[in-house]
Amino acid sequence: MITSSSNVDFVPKGMALASAGEITAVIGPNFSGRSRFMKSMAGLEHHHGDGRTIRDELAVYIRPDVDLSISGLRPSVRDEVSYHLGGNPHRESIFKLLRSAGLENRLDQNPTTLSGGEQAALVLIIKLALNPGLLAVDCALEQLHPELKDRLLTEVKRCDLIRTTFLLADNRLPESRVPIETALELPDSTITNPENQHDRSPPFGHLDSSVVLPLRTEPTAIELDDLSFSYARSKPVLKNLNLQLTPGKIHMIRGRNGAGKSTLAKLLCGVLRCKSGAIKSNDRKLVPYSAPGRLVAYHFQFPDSQFVARTVGEDVASGPAARGLLGVALSSRVDAVLAAFGLETLKESEIFELPYVIRKRVAIAAIVATGAKWMIFDEPTLGQDEGSCSFLAAVFSQLTSLGVGVIVISHSRLFADSLNGERHYLEDGAFKEPWSEGRL
Amino acid sequence: MLNPSPICRGLATLLALVGTFLAKDALLVASVYCAVLVPLLVSLRLLRTHAKFVLAGVLPLAIGLLILWGVVIGAAPGLPHGSAPIEGVKHAILMSLRLAMIAGLFQLCLLSLPFGELMSVLANWGIRGDGQILVAGSLTVWPELQLRAGQIVTARYARGLVKNRSLLTTIRQLPFLLRPLLTWVLHTGILRAELWHQQNLIERAREATPPKNGTIFGNAFFLGIAASWMTVNVIRFLR
What we know:
Order of helices and strands of chain B: HHHHHHHHHH
Distance between the termini of chain A: 35 Å
Strand order of the largest sheet of chain A: 11-12-13-8-14-15
Number of domains of chain B: 2
CATH class of the largest domain in chain A: Alpha Beta
Number of helices of chain B: 10
Helix content of chain A: 25-40%
Radius of gyration of chain A: 22 Å
Number of strands of chain A: 15
Radius of gyration of chain B: 22 Å
CATH superfamily of the largest domain in chain A: P-loop containing nucleotide triphosphate hydrolases
Largest sheet of chain B: none
Oligomer: heterodimer
Number of helices of chain A: 11
Order of helices and strands of chain A: EHEHHHEHEEEEEHEEEHHHEHEHEE
Structural class of chain B: mainly alpha
Structural class of chain A: alpha/beta
Largest interface: A-B, 53 and 46 residues
Number of strands of chain B: 0
C-alpha cells in the first residue's frame, strides 16, 4: 500500500492509494490538479526529477498526447517493445497483452503510423514492460474503444507478473467496466498552483451568432458512393462505403480502434486521395483532394498535429484568413471565437506552453473559426470534463442550426447520447446497421 | 561474418576518415567509393539511406562548390583567381567526393547496427550517459523532422489553408513550415530526452541487444581495408 504522505506534500497526508496490481481512479474536473498530482506521484514535479519516488522503484507518467510517450528511437513496434523490455523476463506476458490489444499484426509497423487508440494501447503496454512500481495514466486511455479498454485493463490485472500500482485519470470511466479498487476524488482546485496562469480553467463564454460564420452559399450534401481505400502495401481499410451525409445535422461515427474512422475523415477533407469509388454531391463528383479542407475542415485527434502557428490567436486566425477574411472582420471573428471558448486571455500565449486540455480546446476553436460547410471533429472530448463536453455539444448543435454539417468521431457513448443526430458504426471498414449498444 | 568488434569498428572508421581527409586524387577517391564503399553499403542495406543523403545533402553542396571554385574563383586553392578554372572544378569534385565518402563511412559505422548494439558500441568507446542521449537524439532528429513536416503540411491541407495541390502552391508552403517545425522539433527533442533519461531507455535498449564480439575475419577485413586506404593517401600526401 502506498500513501501519498511518503512523497507528495500537497495532497492530504495518509491518502491511501491502491496496492500493487490494483487501480486507483483519480477523479476530478479539469484543473482540479489531477495531472499535477499524477506527475508528482511519478516524480516529474517538485520532487526528484529522476522518476524514482515510489518504494525507490520506477514511476511512469503517461501523457494524454500519447505519441510523445513513444521513444522514437527506431521505427517499428517490435523494436519499441523490445527497447522497453530490456532484460525484463516477463516478455511473454507483454506479448500476450499486445495480442489482447490486437497489435500482434502491427509489429513491423512504425508506431507513428498506428491509429490514436492503437498508440494509446501500445504506450500502456510498453510502459508496463518497464516494470514500474507506479504507472500514472492521464486520460490516455480515453482514446480506446470502451470494450478494448475493459479487456486490456482486466488482462493487465490478471497478469500476476505485473506488480504495478495504477493511477488512472479517465473522464470516460463511468461508461466502462474497468475494475477499480480505489477512487481518489480531488476536491476542485486544491492542488492548483496560484502562480501559474495556465493552472486555472478559463470559463467558457457565450455562444452568440457571431461565433459561427453563416454559410455564404447553400449547404452541401455529401454522398459516399462505393468508397474504398487502402494504404500502400496493406489490406483495405475502407470497403465499398455507401452513405448519405445530410448538412445541418450531426453525424456520429463510432467503431473499434483502427476501424478506419480517421481514414474516412482524411478522405472527406481531402488529405488522402480516393482510390476507388467516389465522394459526390447532388450526383456531381467532388474531388476534395484537389482543394483540401475547403468543403470539409478536419479537427485532428491529437491537437498538436493540427497547429500551424506559434500563438493561439495566430492559429485560430489562419483558417478564416485563408478563406478571405481580412482586417477588422478577421480580428473581430477571432476575438468572438476565442471569447466563446474562454480563450481570450490566452490569445498571445504560445500554444505548446499550454496544458493539453486547453490545446485541445484551441484546436477545436480553430476549426469552428474556419466557417467551413462541413466540419469533422475527431475525438473532440479527449481529456475534457463534463462541463467542457456539454459546451462542445452546444457548439455542435449551434453549428448545425446554421446549416453546417458536423461529423463527430468519438468512443464516448455518453457524449454520443448527448448529441442529437445520425449515428453510424464502422466495423472492419464497412458501415454496420443499426448502431446498437449490444454491438458496442 | 563481417561484423567487427566495437574497437575495430571505431579504429577502422578513424583510419578511413584520416585517409579520406588526406586524399588528393579525385579519381582514386571515386574508385574506392564505387568499388569498396558502395558494395559495403549495398550489403548492409544502407544504399538507399546513403543515396538520399547524397542527393539531399551532398549534391546541392557539390553544385555550390563547382560554381564557387570553377566559376567565381576560377582556380584551385593557392593559384591566382581566374587562372585555372579546370583546376578549380577538379578541386570542387574532390571536396564533394570526400564529403560523400565521409558520410558513407559514418553511415557504415553507425547505422549498420541495431540501435541497442550501437549504444553498446558507444559505451565501449567510452561514450555513456548524456553522450549517448546526444547520439540517440541526433539519430532521431531526421525522422522527427520528416514526421512533423508531414503533419504540418497535412494540417494545412485539412484546415483549408492551401488553395490547391499545384507545385507552386506546395513550394509556397515552405515558409509556413519552418517556424512550427523548429518549435516542434525542439519541444519534442527535450521531451524525448527526458523520457529516455527517466525511463532508462538507452540502458534497456543495450540490454535488449547485447554486443557482439566480432569475428577475427571481420576485424582483419575492415582494419586491413582502412589501413591500406590511409597508407596510400599518407604516402601520396607526403610525396
